[in-house]
Design goal:
7 helices; Arc Repressor Mutant, subunit A; mainly alpha; elongated
Length: 148
């Protein structure tokens, strides 16, 4: 990915700025590619993330705080994301019997089945995104990214 070419500039961009812009461009490409893979399911990237978090809980319900803490992209509209998944029948929401102020969220069978299908698409999408990188490249990339 040539940053200057993408930005249509002939001026050389300073290395620090170029590196950060490059990260933003790669981030956008990853988000766009993953979103395109999820589009047939009518689920956003954030909704997909919520479903994966809930699947990871196993039979234990999660509350909004737990979901928000584990989100890849932190946001304040977790309630709205859960509401949309509830309307689609992908999650259930109930009031905790021990603490009536606590809302418990679980993934439904429909949500698990859809997520299983999405996993196949996501595996293919991830493979496409990193097809030009070797395993060693990916290890080195992660080492560099951990420095942020």
């Amino acid at each position: 990915m040539n940053v200057e070419k993408i930005l249509k500039t002939t001026k050389e961009i300073p290395l620090k700025s170029r590196s950060l812009i490059h990260l933003m461009l790669v981030n956008n490409k990853v988000k766009e590619t993953i979103s395109a893979g999820l589009k047939p399911y009518g689920v956003s990237l954030q909704q997909f993330n919520v479903l994966r978090i809930l699947r990871g809980q196993g039979s234990n319900p999660a509350n909004l705080s737990t979901i928000n803490e584990r989100m890849v992209t932190k946001m304040s509209n977790t309630t709205r994301l859960v509401d949309k998944l509830l309307i689609k029948g992908l999650v259930d929401r109930s009031v905790c019997e021990e603490n009536r102020r606590k809302i418990e969220i679980t993934i439904t069978k429909k949500g698990l089945d859809m997520l299983k299908d999405m996993d196949v698409v996501m595996d293919k999408t991830e493979a496409i995104l990193v097809e030009d990188l070797t395993e060693q490249d990916l290890l080195e990339l992660n080492i560099l990214l951990n420095k942020f």
